[in-house]
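SEQUENCE WITH STRUCTURE:
===
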Amino acid sequence: MSLVDYAGRLLAGVDEVGRGPLAGDVVTAAVILDPDKPITGLADSKKLSEKRREQLFDEITLKARSWSIARASVEEVDRYNILQATMVAMQRAVTGLSLQPEYVAVDGNRLPAWDYPSQAIVRGDNRVACISAAAILAKVTRDREMVAYHRQYPEYGFAGHKGYGTRAHREALQKYGPCVLHRRSFEPVKSMVGDPDMGDERRQTREAVD
């Protein structure tokens, strides 16, 4: 059965945010929308303003029949690799739903190893409402966390780039070295952690992580 054939009321959408950044967890969400409580404006979370995402976050959590937010930690990303860590986080999100989904639609081209009838949909966050809802929950959650981390580690600028490898972030890494939020399996962090010629300030940061 494909998604076009599904006609029930327990369709779960699943999406992730944070596969690409150099720092922070991968955050996933699963959402079962309520057909009797439609939500206007669901779309690819990246195409929405921050204000609109925040508004939709509140509406989704209020109106959805069930929703769940999960994650894979930085340590799990480094241990398993980013793809497998993402699959684990998606499994956790679906398992966390208060209702058992009849069918699961996942953004992207891969599915976790589970027994749910399911389909991977490329650009699903722009095509399937429940996936869009999941993407919004995941992005708002992760963005809020990175803003909170900025207060703890202001030198890296997490509030602005959310952990992605922007020029400013890479320059901060060169100056301060990685902190506990950085993914050691990602370059340039991987090379920095193993670099014996780091300056004293950067070496101290690395040793604090260890």
Remarks:
- Strands lie at 11-17, 26-32, 66-72, 103-107, 118-121.
- The radius of gyration is 18 Å.
